[in-house]
Amino acid sequence: MVTFKKFLDQEVKRLFLIVWPPCGEEKITDIDVSVGLVLGDEQHMHVITTDKDDKWTPSTYIESIPHEIFSWSDFPTRMKKWMKIDESDDLSYEFYEITHVDTFDKIVSQTISDVEILNIDENSPFGVKFVFENDYIVSSPISAGNTIETKAFNQQNKIHHFAKLWKARFSSLKYKLNSSAAS
Known about the structure:
The protein is α+β, with helices and mostly antiparallel strands. The protein is built from 4 helices and 11 strands. The model has no long low-confidence stretch (mean pLDDT 85).
């Protein structure tokens, strides 16, 4: 996964949750949520999510830092309200800045020490894990789109469930790069 190698050894300066309003969803765990990373001195964010076309493959794209940003304290209330609505024509992604939230303090201002791709086989990646010294971010597909988890947020262990179900495994991009350089 060439696109994810660029994240190795990068420092996370700002952190966002990117949420598609969960109209009519029954459980909070069904919410389509991705993560946005602002690295170093960059003036944009890298969105880590699942490919919206195949609904399986991890993907990343660049997004401008939005003008309308919600605070973390708004997140639970807004999600519960959205879950009670069946449908709306005015839907768009909502951005929640979590840079200064204690739950994510072991990610912000930290360096990405490794990126691991979860594969069923070499040609079927379906999740990505960003590894930090004392935390991680896992991004993986769900029926609604994407979900993320860290040591302290949204602990569902879905990716480990997939790993058992399909005997999948993580492969370290850092290890692959170091092995290639040594050859």
